[in-house]
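testing teh design pipeline on a random one, pls ignore if ur not involved
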């Protein structure tokens, strides 16, 4: 995914340069947005933290989760720790602490509800009378078990979210496939077709980037979906050889 994503972004960037596009090209002649963007661009960047300091909270967050993975609710603990760390590290760079906390809380709630709604919809879908028929039909798909797992997960994840693994996991483990392999294939396949207009990831992406579906969706869709599909094919081939 990293290799494909880097190549694709490089390709699109070069194409945009050839077309003489810039950031303001995507604001659709909205003068207020263009003016606000220009004012932000003119901000004194000497007041911004450096790269190493900026990524330190993220690195520490991941490290704490991995090192203390057996601690109950470690993700919540790590997040709280990282938020406190950010408050200390970036204290001198923040003019309005209350505003930053409000923006963070608002963004977190919106993202959480967007993702939760997709999962909830999938949970309700599994109770539909036709779901078992659809699942059984897909499970009869010819070919290697890992291929069918990848295809089925990719097809169902856009409407069911993370509930797919709870419905299919035990079935494939009972076939003799190691649980860790089932987990890896399902997780990667779960992202193959999930970057769709109604997904929580798309809603969050547009809100953070300030782009709309017209300008942002196609590129994010290619980066995410195609990247996951390439990774899925690679992982299935590796699993067939190693297990």
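output:
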């Amino acid at each position: 995914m990293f290799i494909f994503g880097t190549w694709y972004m490089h390709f699109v960037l070069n194409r945009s340069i050839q077309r003489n596009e810039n950031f303001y090209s995507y604001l659709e002649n909205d003068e207020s947005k263009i003016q606000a963007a220009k004012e932000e661009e003119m901000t004194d960047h000497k007041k911004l933290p450096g790269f190493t300091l900026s990524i330190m909270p993220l690195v520490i967050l991941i490290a704490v989760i991995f090192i203390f993975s057996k601690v109950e609710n470690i993700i919540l603990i790590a997040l709280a720790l990282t938020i406190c760390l950010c408050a200390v590290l970036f204290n001198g760079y923040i003019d309005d602490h209350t505003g930053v906390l409000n923006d963070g809380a608002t963004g977190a709630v919106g993202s959480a509800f967007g993702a939760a709604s997709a999962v909830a919809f999938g949970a309700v879908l599994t109770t539909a009378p036709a779901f078992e028929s659809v699942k059984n039909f897909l499970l009869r798909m010819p070919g290697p078990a890992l291929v069918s797992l990848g295809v089925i997960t990719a097809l169902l994840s856009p409407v069911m979210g993370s509930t797919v693994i709870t419905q299919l996991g035990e079935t494939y483990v009972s076939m003799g496939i190691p649980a860790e392999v089932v987990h890896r294939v399902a997780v990667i396949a779960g992202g193959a077709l999930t970057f769709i207009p109604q997904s929580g990831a798309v809603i969050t992406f547009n809100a953070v980037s300030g782009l709309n579906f017209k300008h942002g969706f196609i590129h994010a869709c290619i980066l995410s979906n195609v990247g996951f599909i390439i990774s899925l094919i690679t992982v299935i081939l590796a699993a067939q050889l190693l297990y």
